[in-house]
Specification:
This protein has about 240 residues and is mainly β. It contains one helix and nine strands. It has an eight-stranded antiparallel β-barrel. A hairpin with a 3-residue loop joins strand 5 and strand 6. The N terminus is likely disordered.
Length: about 240
């Protein structure tokens, strides 16, 4: 267990180092490349679907929990091929238990307001291919559970597959109010006219915080969130 925890923390540390190096490189590139590109400011809205899991340690058998996301965006581009994007989104995360064919269902949906701030790298004119990456922070709002059984009565259920396995996660409430992590996405943007455009994006989020407390005496030493999202956005250029 101690070795596994060490590997998890080492993995998080390596991720943070890579992101820091990318941010340093992009900042250096922006300072160095004082360009003749006219600045571009745009605002937008977005919406789409999410598919989430939680990486528990000890592990929990699970599958993706579907949800939704929607929000507003602002983008600032000062030079060709590079800009910054900030968003304010409502997003649903969580997990769904995998009962391996048994006739039981359980899923937990966690609702957040998130604020990602990302570097925006793009190529093309009429149609653009782009890459977004950067840190984000989120505020926990609420949670809801769907199941076809009473989690407090698992021991009395016939053929329940989790009697001798870790199942405390079904009974625990999410107490960590702040989540933070790293987002990265790929997509395309297509101009409608000089001021309006549509974008599509697939994005991956990995949380560096935990859903549940993670002290030595707690049940789980890690409960990191992972979310894949697919969204459609509408941009309006204001400058």
């Amino acid at each position: 267990m101690r070795i596994l925890n060490h590997n998890i923390y080492a993995y998080k540390s390596n991720i943070l180092k890579v992101v820091a190096l990318v941010c340093i490189f992009l900042s250096f590139h922006e300072i160095k490349a004082q360009t003749h590109y006219n600045s571009n400011v745009a605002i937008g809205v977005k919406g789409g679907a999410t598919f989430s899991e939680v990486f528990f340690n000890p592990s929990v058998r699970q599958k993706f929990n579907p949800g939704m996301t929607a929000g507003v965006m602002v983008r600032y581009i000062e030079e060709d091929h590079f800009g910054l994007i900030a968003e304010l989104n409502f997003v649903q995360r969580g997990w769904a238990e995998n009962f391996e064919g048994a006739p039981y269902n359980y899923s937990r949906t966690l609702n957040y307001v998130e604020l990602p701030v990302m570097a925006h790298i793009f190529f093309g004119r009429r149609g653009k291919f782009f890459f977004n990456a950067g840190p984000q922070i989120a505020l926990f709002l609420s949670e809801s559970t769907k199941s076809n059984f009473d989690p407090t009565q698992m021991a009395s259920l016939p053929d329940f597959p989790y009697i001798n396995r870790m199942n405390e996660q079904m009974l625990m409430s999410a107490t960590q109010k702040i989540d933070y992590g790293i987002s990265a996405g790929l997509g395309g943007e297509f101009n409608i006219n000089k001021r309006n455009s549509l974008s599509i994006e697939a994005r991956f989020y990995y949380g560096l915080g935990n859903v549940f407390p993670s002290k030595r005496t707690d049940t789980y030493s890690a409960s990191n969130q992972m979310t894949i999202s697919a969204t459609i956005g509408y941009w309006f250029r204001i400058k």
